[in-house]
What does this fold into?
Amino acid sequence: MNLVSRPKSETAGHDRKRGITAAHLLSLTALVLLGLLGCAPSGETEASERPNVLLIVTDDQPAATVRHMPKLRETVGERGVSFGRAYLTDPLCCPSRATILTGKYTHNHGVTNNHHRKGGARKFREEGLHRDTIGTRLGEAGYATGYFGKWMNGYEGRHVPPGWGRWFAFSGNLNRPDSYEVNSDGRQRTFPREQNETDLLGEEAEDFVRGHRNEPWLAVVATHAPHGPYWPPERHEDSFDGVKLPRTPAFDEDDVSTKPEAYRRPPLSGKEKRKLRRAYEGKLEALQGVDDLVGGLVGALKETGQLDNTYVVYLTDNGYLLGEHRHEAKGKPYEGSIRTPLLVRGPGVPAGETRGQLVGNVDLAPTIAGWTGARPPENPDGRSLAPLLTTSPPGSWREALLIEHFVGSDWTGLRTLTHTYVEHEGGDRELYDMREDPYQVDNIHERADEDLLKTLEGRLDELKDCAAEQCREAEG
It folds into this structure.
């Protein structure tokens, strides 16, 4: 198990305050001149008719932790739509990020891993996938584009992927205790650890938002938080000290004898439980920085008159098990791993509503393309969520969503409105009735109705190798 306690800064008692840069002085000078001319911009600044898109992606965030992010809930959740059944079709960093950028399932984009030849930034580039993303497509459609934060595991050097007009991406090892590096438009920059990485991303993204108020733009802000090791801003270092770890029926599951053989392990020890609790504490404290980032960006949108014309989307690249089913992990076919928070606000999106339809990260690229009038990346497998973001969502939607994973013990499966069905490499099978057993502690595969099994097996066979329209048809 990879249980890492939370590093804390050696210095405390003060917050890092943002300085006035030369760029800011130029901006202030311009505002003064415009004011003298009688045409200073206001909150009603003229904006493009085409909407902006702000996509915020976190790393390793359990979906339930959103309840500890008040600014996100207030500025996005209560002002938009929250999806209760939103999933990562492959709950691992790079496969998920490739899906977000291309709208394709893992078996189609081929980035199956975080490292080596089968995954990561190297695979994404060598296969040419970086040339056809939401960034390149919106750039072709006349949008200003910016990427801020984590790209993919293994990314380093001076290369800037095509399609991104502003590039501010973490480079190399992010877990060094003293510093971290960023590729800023092809120039390598080193920042001391005291300069909190999440705060830095927020500042850079805010500058982008303010600087493009009179043209349509796409900004992707991809935080490293709450991935461990945990580096919360100093102001939040003690915010959740001693917090109790959630203990659902899935936590340290009583009986794992019906789980796949590769997943069975002894009950959690007291030491493991204490480490898991500290990891949970670290995630919550790191997420307070993300919450501030969201609040700051929404504030910048409001101040510049862009908020009503901007779609704001929030999700994670994968969930994270913190003791559920006796594991600390991602990449497992369980709710804690495959679920994502998904919150959306924007033009025409009703406020404070929830949706129960099955949706996934595979749907984001087609959705963003639809909003902006751009072409989606070639042959997307997902579908636009736009019909669900209205006051009258359609009565029918997909009946099943493919979930898959190709690292270690491979598995493919389905998440339907009522069941989770999974086929593991080696022959193990799992089936959970999500109405009766939402915590997935009772694998009913061996005693399930044969007709139900045939239906699920048949649909999974259709989806395993599907592409584009075939996927949407097989999903129902």
Remarks:
- The chain has a mean pLDDT of 91.
- The domain at 48-390 is CATH 3.40.720.10 (Alkaline Phosphatase, subunit A).
- The first strand starts at residue 52 and ends at 58.
